[in-house]
Structure to design on (283 residues):
């Protein structure tokens, strides 16, 4: 008995010492990794003129995985559920940043037609291209005013206009912006009538937007059907639990049942993603 006690004490001391040595190292590695991820997200947001407190962004990246890990462990009562929750928690901040950037790019694409009209009107009135861009920045709200205002600031710093428009294309890639920048650069090099080009571009972008609205209207039925079909299992589960709260106890109390629940959730997510892909039409 004494020997077993000594062995247990030795093992406990060894594990404690090992944990004392490894936990700080693991925490430093985790902290460095998350700080790097937060810095990447912060830079992406700053490039889109979306300011966010770095401390809040870091807390979001740390708290989100913790909360979802605890929720996954509480719901599925297994290490698998905790790992799934941890993965979801790590993905949430990146998805938030991605959606913010996507929303900004969408607003910018909508404003391009108005920006073209202002540039065309100013050029017809005898203003230079830079003066026309200044008028655009004054007349239109963000994000197009911020992006073209950055072009003006870069020009004052001595950066060529061609390079500024290339940088704008990298920040806000879209077919409409590519047409606009190409028309401006070609007209500057060849001396063509840029106002005539802008007029044609406005007609082209409006026709493309109208076609896009028609396509979205036609594909809306498939998207709605996909949403309804995706919500049916969730609605069924809520309805069953409301009538019989213990109905899913056998699923949550056994490893096989929890595995099937995880498989059902994954299959539901894959199905929703596939429906979204199939109902998307690029034009």
């Amino acid at each position: 008995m004494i020997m077993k006690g000594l062995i247990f004490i030795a093992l406990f001391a060894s594990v404690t010492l090992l944990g004392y040595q490894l936990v700080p190292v693991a925490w430093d590695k985790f902290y460095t990794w998350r700080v790097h991820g937060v810095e990447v997200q912060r830079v992406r947001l700053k490039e889109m003129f979306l300011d966010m407190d770095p401390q809040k962004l870091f807390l979001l990246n740390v708290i989100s995985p913790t909360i979802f890990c605890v929720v996954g462990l509480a719901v599925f009562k297994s290490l698998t559920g905790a790992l799934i929750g941890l993965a979801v928690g790590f993905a949430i901040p990146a998805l938030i940043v991605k959606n913010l950037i996507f929303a900004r790019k969408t607003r910018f694409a909508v404003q391009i037609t108005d920006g073209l009209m202002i540039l065309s009107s100013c050029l017809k009135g005898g203003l230079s291209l830079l003066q026309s861009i200044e008028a655009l920045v004054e007349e239109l709200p963000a994000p197009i005013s911020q992006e073209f205002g950055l072009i003006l600031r870069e020009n004052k710093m001595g950066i060529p206009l061609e390079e500024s428009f290339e940088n704008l294309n990298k920040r806000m890639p879209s077919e409409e912006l590519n047409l606009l920048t190409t028309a401006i650069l070609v007209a500057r090099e060849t001396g063509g009538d840029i106002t005539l080009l802008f007029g044609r571009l406005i007609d082209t972008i409006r026709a493309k937007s109208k076609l896009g609205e028609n396509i979205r209207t036609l594909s809306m039925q498939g998207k709605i059907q996909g949403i309804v079909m995706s919500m049916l299992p969730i609605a069924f589960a809520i309805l069953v639990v409301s009538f019989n709260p213990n109905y899913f106890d056998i699923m949550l109390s056994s490893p096989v049942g929890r595995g099937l629940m995880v498989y059902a959730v994954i299959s539901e997510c894959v199905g929703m993603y596939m429906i979204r892909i199939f109902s998307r039409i690029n034009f």
User: Anything to note?
Assistant: The first helix runs from residue 2 to 47.
